[in-house]
Structure prediction request, 335 residues.
Amino acid sequence: MAATNIEVWQSATVIETVSVADGILRIVLEPTLPKRAEPGSHIDLKVSINGEETKRSYSVVESSQDGTRLVISVMRAPLSRGGSIFMHQLLVGQRLEITQPLQNFPLRVGAQHYLLLAGGIGITAIANMAAVLKRLKADYTLVYVGRSREAMAYLDELSELHGDRLQVHVDAEGTSLKVPELVGRADEQTELYMCGPIRLMDAVRRNWVERELDLPNLRYETFGNSGWYDPEEFIVRVPKLDLEVRVPQGRSMLEALEDAGAEMMFDCRKGECGLCEVRVIELSGTIDHRDVFYSERQQRLSTKMNCCVSRAVTSATGSRADAEAGPAIITIEPN
Ligand code: FES
Prediction:
């Protein structure tokens, strides 16, 4: 399916909100310029955080045929920068500014076998794909991974719809996913679509490469907000602009630099396009690369970073081994 990414903004009314798992809210929207959402699409949406308007992206979990109803689901992030809190406070009847559905995770119809992998809230990007593959009578398996059943949205609905094609792995029940086994089921005719935490996606990517499977058959969507380490406050220095900025836990480096008046380049704000890249001149600490733009080698080198999602942490373990050490400090040259 062709990717369409022309942003058409419109208003939409919230017509339903309902809790579908621990901390996850299902929100049904009725847009004024309806357009059906193809599987893998998302909408951008304006949220207000501390009186300031900013943009967030949410996968479309379901769409009516005519696009008059779009469903998204939002997890209340424990370290929310404000967006998920705003979304969880929405009331029925409230109006929002949203885009028509945008697509950068298209489902290619016609593969012989499909593996769909969803980790946690990543199910929001995968559920619609699974529904379409079922309608098309395709050969697919939906693998859904979570910490506990209570935290996994739509489990009952998915089980009813997909029956044996759904495989559930729950950490709390000791049935965690074994990535090599999953990837071992793929062959040259298999396409794997995944969305979930970066560690899970990275493990799949590594196994995929080890098995020398075609990389174009491995497709993923990222939320650009999960990293290898818990986010910490750190300091960014920009000698060229004579700036020293504190990046709090709940704010991205890009946002903190913008707040300080730096003119930054960016596009996706999700670690996908590389436009917000900055050059790292000096570093006390470690870079927690959270993008999917760089290769493993580039991330290891750490001479550049995508500042919309990637952060600095104090130590290679991510834990503050030495409480006296103070925050990580990174000196950069902007794009
Ligand atoms: S804005 Fe696209 S990677 Fe940062």
About this structure: Residues 234-333 form a domain with the Ubiquitin-like (UB roll) fold (CATH 3.10.20.30). The mean pLDDT is 90.
